[in-house]
């Protein structure tokens, strides 16, 4: 009885030590993330003015006039840009710290899926934001200013609303470009099959061209420039779904054979 009680106390102490170790590791990783974000904030705030000029350049060329409506408004936008820039610059370190913390508790396949989701997700989000800035945004700004060309109202826009609009576009396209990553994750979880995506492709094509027609000037070239990358992205998602579906099925067969051999 005494030995059983002593063994139970030892197990409880080991559990407490394990929990304490995890909490210390979590604290250290959080401190690293905070330090990276703070350094990124200082760097990005130093370049906040040029970044704002870069973001407003396309609108200025089209005739937009940007104003700020309170003494602190522009400074607050610099802070906002610096915070967003710090997160963007620090995202590789942040994602690595998250992965390194949870990696010991993941199985090999789960570890691969999580690591793939982080790396590929970051890549496709940057790709989507770049696509928005270089292609989608100029078309949208051109469309919105020409819709109101027949009026006598001057397009004097507050810098707050313009930058919020820009960030919304970046986040929207960055999220849309996560389609292949989401497809791989859903496939690995058994929630997506390539035949389902092929079956719904005609509906997706119609939706993509409707969206492209709404956000672009009324000419075919502009609509195609927006729609075609989206269609290619969807086709890429189908291809990845097929590849990872086969890998998943092959892995399940290998596990079944190993279990039968052990029995």
UniProtKB/TrEMBL annotation:
InterPro entries linked: Sec-indep_translocase_CS (IPR019820), TatC (IPR002033)
GO CC, one annotated term: TAT protein transport complex
Pfam family, one: TatC
GO MF entries: proton motive force dependent protein transmembrane transporter activity
GO biological process, one term: protein transport by the Tat complex
Membrane topology category: Multi-pass membrane protein
Protein family: Belongs to the TatC family.
Subunit structure: Forms a complex with TatA.
Function according to Swiss-Prot or TrEMBL: Part of the twin-arginine translocation (Tat) system that transports large folded proteins containing a characteristic twin-arginine motif in their signal peptide across membranes.
Identification of the protein by name: Sec-independent protein translocase protein TatC
Species annotation: Holdemania massiliensis
